[in-house]
Write a structure and sequence with these properties.
By secondary structure, the chain is of the alpha/beta class. The protein has helices spanning about 15-25, 90-100; strands at about 5-10, 25-35, 50-60, 60-65, 80-85, 105-110, 115-120, 125-130. Helices cover about 15% and strands about 35% of the residues.
């Protein structure tokens, strides 16, 4: 059995995955638009550049994603991608990078379970938890 995370974006899947690839060290392994899909397409012409399916290797896992019509898109709620980073400095750098232009729920701070922890939604609508590893960090 394999469990994947599948993210929906409101038209900015390509931008989000390119950002994650560049700044988090991920690798896009597939990026297909509706216009590139084989066979007759069901999507309206204005959706030819929207992402039908994308794959990103990130942190040892594969994250899948696509764009959904704006009327169906909602930013993530009650679900987070959780990044555990090896140092406080790396956690703070990643937090600053990902949270810029987003919505911060819990700013980066020391907690009883990690030397640094934060919760936020990035500018693309993805919710994140960022932790720095330390003696109290859950594994």
């Amino acid at each position: 059995m394999i469990l994947h995370t599948y993210l929906n974006f409101g038209g900015n899947c390509k931008q989000a995955f390119e950002f994650y690839e560049k700044h988090l060290g991920g690798k896009i392994t597939l990026m297909m638009t509706h216009g590139q899909a084989p066979g007759p397409g069901n999507a309206p012409p204005e959706w030819k550049d929207a992402i039908l399916h994308a794959r990103l290797e990130l942190g040892g896992v594969e994250v899948l994603a696509s764009d959904v019509p704006p009327e169906r898109f909602q930013p993530m709620r009650s679900v987070y991608l959780s990044l555990t980073l090896p140092t406080i400095e790396e956690a703070e750098r990643t937090y600053k990078l990902l949270s810029e232009g987003g919505e911060i729920y819990m700013p980066m701070a020391e907690t009883f379970f990690a030397p640094r922890f934060a919760q936020f939604r990035d500018r693309f609508g993805t919710s994140w938890m960022v932790l720095a590893q330390g003696p109290q960090t859950p594994r």
